[in-house]
Amino acid sequence: MQHISKLPNVGTTIFSVMSALSNKHNAINLSQGFPNFKSDQKLINLVSQAMSSGYNQYAPMPGNLELREAIAKKFDLLYTTSYHPETEITVTAGATQAIYTIISAFVKTEDEVIIFRPAYDCYEPAIEINGGKTISVQLHAPRYKVDWNDVKSKVNSKTKMIIINTPQNPSGCIFSEADMLKLQELTKDTNIIVLSDEVYEHIIFDGEKHQSACLFSDLKSRSFITASFGKTFHNTGWKMGYCCAPKSLMEEFRKVHQFNVFSVNHPMQKGLADYLQVPNHFLGLSEFYQEKRDLFLSLIKDSRFNFKPAQGTYFQVLDYSEITKEHDVNFAKQLTINHGLASIPLSVFNDNHKDDKVLRFCFAKTDDTLKQAAEIINRI
Asked: Which residue range or ranges hold the Aminotransferase class I/classII large domain (predicted)?
């Protein structure tokens, strides 16, 4: 049989490549973005309790109502804004499913979607498979600031959607209030949908505040916000997330969602609904991860790597340009094979694989793991 691939240029993701290499060479894995410590036992117990209590059949298509109500309360607490739990919040199989479904619901052939690079790698394939065209705005190391004049020059009558990610993976940078106001101004009085990927909303450092799309009234009226319980509660393998949007947009989302997954894991939804009743379960996350970021950076401050401290996420970008001129993919592989430390090269997320000589390291690890990794970095 012969088939024409709908994604001819897509191969194995760099995350799978580097994790496999890490496993093969028994390296410390700071490549793929997952914690190597346990989720809160209280949450695990609540999910087990939900199973024992009979929450083992299909959840409602939009999600367990108690969980949607808890999410609505969280938005009110954090951002003094509201989403209606019945019509404007949907629970999803992780944020990636939410992102794919949003794009599938709205992007048609020849529609253009603007993304900011380095960009997380699930955006472009979803655009392409739905017949859309990706329009890139390339950001530059080390601070990855947005040139809004460049963005404006790429907006036209074909622009259907703009995807932002703040705090941003893989760069660890954030969109400021000024950035969000520029985005609001740029999309005002248009039919452009904004997809705001906010999976690291609770991991932001140095006293900065997360500038959610829902804080800006006109932006909120045209935006989807996607979020991840896996990133927040250290259980990425659960693949639990949600999205929020005005009713008219959410109605279109659910048309696709119901035939994509219909509904997601019910006992986990019930357990999360109960766990969210205590806001401290997510309010202390920034402090928790800032301590890990600061520990990691203090341990490698005298190394030959250069860095600007991450503003958010649990990723730190390190510049190795004073060590070697090797291409970042090759250097990342050598670091794994020869030194026993796995990272992610950022060129794979850039236009034309632009190589800034930087690698991304995940610090969502135990302190012992970070100390072992720092010893390796300091020897290079």
From this structure: 27-377
